[in-house]
Amino acid sequence: MKIHIIGASGTGKSTLAKFISEQENIKWIDTDHYLWKDDFFTENNQVELRRVMYQHDIETNSNYIVS
Question: Which long-range contacts (CB under 8 A, 24 or more apart) does 50-58 make?
Fold first, then answer.
């Protein structure tokens, strides 16, 4: 199962994805994790690093939900 949830900021994508991942026992891939270097959202990762991180997660998990 591969699910991708897209939408505007603040619409509940992460909340929905986390819920589904828990119910279905699949990996939740939160794309904010790729964007930011820190928990304070002050410094971005470079685009190439984001791509490498995402590619790794989708290749190492056969079932996942992305938000």
Answer: 54/29, 57/27, 57/29, 58/2, 58/29
Cβ proximity of 30 and 36 under 8 Å? no
Kindly indicate the confidence band of residue 40, based on its pLDDT and cuts at 50, 70 and 90: confident
Measured CA to CA, the distance from residue 46 to residue 18 in angstroms comes to: 25
The H or E element spanning position 28 is strand 27-29
Q: How far apart are CA 59 and CA 17, in angstroms?
A: 19
Confidence category of residue 11, pLDDT binned at 50, 70, 90: very high
* Alpha carbon distances (Å) from 8 to 14, 53, 57, 62: 11, 22, 23, 26
